[in-house]
């Protein structure tokens, strides 16, 4: 009996001391906007007092909504690590993996349906088709200008299941985003069609009057990076038997340029693989004013 008593005290103490055991629910109120927000990666049309700070990841975020869209602003603050060089180590590889917003109407921090926002290179004609699906209208002259280059950067959004795999959806359009820079900060601005939250394929129907669980997840390794890393580890084992035990050379050299392209410093080999980060909040949508 004493053993159970002491064990209970230990568990309670850990719950009080360690954030992984007990954490406060973060409830965020979205702000109503009468005018659509321009998704351009510029934070000047967001009020500083509406920003919510996450000190753990050195970032801040805010939400707005109207009847059709949810707008999300995410800002990573940069700090000086060397003379004249600024970074945020918690950005990890967000430039490669993109950001996934997990949306759960069941009031659980559980990955059921998400929106993955990411950049990819696309042929110019494909870019025009994708943007037209999102509702953009181009003149013949604008199409001509776009087609003057063989490829463009596409700011894409996939609806994903709990495994991160893209799935069909009944929403009228997918989301989009843009990134930009502010003073000592990197800015991400996102557009989420509310129709995607009301997809009839979802088991739990979302009630706009109730809070929505929203999870932010980014970083880690892309599938391509994982494949390359697995190959490097296999090659390293062969090289070690041949007298070459430099894992750092295997991971960051040669065809591993996709590692070097990430925001994460992989110079330490296995111990410096990019980390994945996430956090959850409860979001209350604003009613029309």
* Biggest beta sheet summary: 6 strands, mixed
Overall number of strands: 14
Helix amount: 10-25%
What is the fold-level CATH name, i.e. the topology of the largest domain? Answer: Immunoglobulin-like
Strand content bin: 25-35%
Low-confidence region ranges: 9-22, 238-270
Strand order of the largest sheet: 1-14-13-8-9-10
Instruction: Identify the overall geometry.
Output: globular
How would you spell out the order of helices and strands?
HEEEEEEEHEEHHEEEEHHHE
Domain count: the total is 2
Number of helical elements: 7
CATH class of the largest domain: Mainly Beta
**Category by helix and strand content:** alpha+beta
- The pLDDT mean sits at 79
- CATH architecture grouping of the largest domain: Sandwich
Question: Whole-number radius of gyration?
Answer: 22 Å
How widely separated are the two ends?
59 Å
């Amino acid at each position: 009996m004493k053993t159970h008593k002491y064990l209970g005290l230990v568990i309670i103490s850990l719950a009080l001391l360690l954030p992984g055991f007990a954490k406060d629910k973060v409830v965020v109120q979205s702000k109503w906007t009468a005018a659509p927000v321009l998704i351009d990666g510029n934070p000047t049309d967001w009020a500083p007092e509406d920003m919510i700070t996450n000190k753990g990841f050195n970032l801040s975020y805010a939400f707005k909504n109207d009847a059709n869209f949810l707008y999300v602003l995410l800002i990573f603050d940069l700090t000086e690590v060397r003379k004249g060089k600024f970074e945020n180590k918690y950005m990890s590889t967000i430039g490669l993996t993109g950001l996934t917003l997990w949306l759960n109407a069941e009031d659980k921090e559980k990955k059921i349906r998400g929106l993955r926002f990411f950049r990819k290179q696309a042929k110019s004609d494909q870019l025009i088709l994708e943007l037209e699906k999102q509702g953009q209208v181009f003149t013949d002259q604008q199409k001509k200008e776009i087609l003057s280059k063989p490829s463009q950067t596409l700011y894409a959004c996939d609806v994903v299941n709990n495994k991160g795999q893209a799935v069909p959806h009944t929403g009228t359009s997918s989301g989009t985003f843009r990134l930009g820079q502010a003073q000592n900060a990197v800015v991400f601005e996102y557009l989420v069609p509310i129709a995607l939250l009301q997809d009839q394929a979802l088991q739990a129907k979302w009630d706009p009057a109730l809070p929505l669980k929203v999870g932010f997840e980014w970083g880690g390794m892309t599938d391509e990076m994982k494949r390359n890393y697995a190959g490097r580890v296999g090659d390293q084992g062969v090289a070690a038997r041949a007298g070459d035990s430099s894992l750092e050379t295997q991971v960051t050299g040669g065809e591993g340029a996709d590692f070097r392209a990430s925001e994460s410093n992989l110079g330490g080999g296995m111990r410096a693989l990019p980390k994945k980060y996430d956090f959850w909040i409860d979001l209350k949508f604003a009613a029309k004013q």
